Amino acid sequence: MLKLGHTTVRCFLAVGVMFLLGCGGDGITIVPVEGTVTLDGQPLERIMVEFWPESEGPRSFASTDEQGHFVLTTDDGKRQGAALGTHRITLKDMTVYNDKFLGRAAENMTNNSSGKKNRIADKYSLATSTDLRQVVEKGKENVFALEVEKKK
After folding, report:
1. Average pLDDT for 112-121
2. 30 pLDDT exceeds 50?
3. Angstrom distance (rounded) from CA 72 to CA 61
4. Residue 68 neighbours by CB distance under 10 Å
5. In a domain, 25, yes or no
6. Res 5: pLDDT
7. CATH number at residue 88
8. pLDDT at position 58, please?
9. Going by fewer Cβ within 10 Å, which terminus of the chain is more open, N or C?
10. What is the pLDDT of residue 3?
């Protein structure tokens, strides 16, 4: 039978505890993020807000309420907030999509409206064309006011 000294056993226990503490997370820090979306100073209700990290981390999203307010949640729905770093922000007018949940395939969706017109500029709908960027920082209040342009 193998004999282990007290020091060896303590080392194994310490490594095991560190391993268990590290499990269940992806090592990416998520911090609370919220904000408002406005057009001409007026709150926009039913806007899908998506934060796409320019580096590592999951997408975060939310839908605005009647005051234009949103609180982000990660893609897996388990954590509120967004990953640290710079994000490209996309916005989609949910009134145009007849209440369909956009999810990950949002960029490929067509307009399913019954005559409703998009209230915001098309440039906000894709991560490749949006000019909205925000930096999410640890230890700071990440509350963002997003003023958008009308669709032309």
Report:
1. 76
2. yes
3. 5
4. 20
5. no
6. 57
7. 2.60.40.1120
8. 95
9. N
10. 59
Q: Which tokens go with 98?
A: 């007849």
Q: Tell me the C-alpha distance between 58 and 69, whole Å.
A: 21
Q: In this structure, is the dihedral angle defined by the CA atoms of residues 51, 102, 25 and 71, taken in order, positive or negative?
A: positive
What phi, psi does 22 have (nearest 5°)? Answer: -80, -20
Q: What is the pLDDT of residue 23?
A: 37
Which of the four pLDDT bands, split at 50, 70 and 90, describes residue 39?
very high
Tokens describing residue 46: 């039913």
**Structure tokens that stand for 11 in this block:** 């080392």
Task: Give the structural domain span for 79.
Answer: 30-103+110-148
Mean pLDDT rounded to a whole number for the chain:
82
Give the side-chain half-sphere CA count within 13 A for 18: 6
What are the two backbone dihedrals, phi and then psi, of residue 27, each rounded to the nearest 5 degrees?
A: 80, 0
Q: Could you give the number of structural domains in the chain?
A: 1
The Cα diameter of the chain in Å comes to: 79
24 occurs within a structural domain: no
Percent helix / strand / coil, the chain, rounded to 5: 20, 35, 45
Non-local (6+) Cβ contacts of 20 within 8 A are none
pLDDT of 114: 55
